[in-house]
Amino acid sequence: MATSVSSELDSHLLECPICLEQLQLPKSLPCLHSFCQDCLGTYITKELSGKMMSTTSFPCPICRMTTSPVQLAESRAKWAEQFPTNSLIQDLIQLKERSSEPLYCKPCQTKGNLNNPASYWCKTMNENFCNICKLELHDIIHTECDILDVTGNHSKRLNRETSAPRCYQHGEKMVRYCEDHQRLCCNECVIEDHRSCGKVPKMKEYCHKVKAGSQLEDMQAALKKGNDRLNS
């Protein structure tokens, strides 16, 4: 997956035409050419250097289209900040950076399965999920997230269903998770089959617990790494 995504992203699409490096905070001009915000700001300042302060426009560095900022009252050094950020390029850069290393399911890692491949990336939560964890952990609580399928040759946005999965036995929404049996269940299942189980929290509570545990492990790992450096 990493090779396919990286190879499909044309390096020139993510490259600033001024500094020839990967775009940083890409700003798009009305002609749709994009540049690093700092590079564009430096270019505007140099391009208008020596010209009258009444000058209200500058040419695009690529196509030379005459371009004016939204707020002429601001200093020329801040004109670049006024142009819209190219969020598409930002997403592509983030996806390219993520594709340079294997993607593993975050909830599975929290439960000790460190190398279970991820099938989906939630852009909103910035976490990876396998098929099962997406269904049983993510989809029940997070119904409006941007989800990308990262298993094929083309990462694609999914059309999300906003309803929680239903119990095949009772037809009710599966809104709880039995930690003893490690499975989703509806309220009827809890009454019939899970009354003796130790923990059957609501899915929202369980998701928060999993996420908190993951954050704690990350903090512990960072502290251990810092301690090892101090002792070395």
UniProtKB/TrEMBL annotation:
<protein>
    <submittedName>
        <fullName>E3 ubiquitin-protein ligase TRIM56</fullName>
    </submittedName>
</protein>
<dbReference type="InterPro" id="IPR027370">
    <property type="entry name" value="Znf-RING_euk"/>
</dbReference>
<dbReference type="InterPro" id="IPR017907">
    <property type="entry name" value="Znf_RING_CS"/>
</dbReference>
<dbReference type="InterPro" id="IPR001841">
    <property type="entry name" value="Znf_RING"/>
</dbReference>
<dbReference type="InterPro" id="IPR047153">
    <property type="entry name" value="TRIM45/56/19-like"/>
</dbReference>
<keyword id="KW-0862">Zinc</keyword>
<dbReference type="Pfam" id="PF13445">
    <property type="entry name" value="zf-RING_UBOX"/>
</dbReference>
<keyword id="KW-0479">Metal-binding</keyword>
<dbReference type="InterPro" id="IPR013083">
    <property type="entry name" value="Znf_RING/FYVE/PHD"/>
</dbReference>
<feature type="domain" description="RING-type">
    <location>
        <begin position="16"/>
        <end position="64"/>
    </location>
</feature>
<keyword id="KW-0863">Zinc-finger</keyword>
<dbReference type="GO" id="GO:0008270">
    <property type="term" value="F:zinc ion binding"/>
</dbReference>
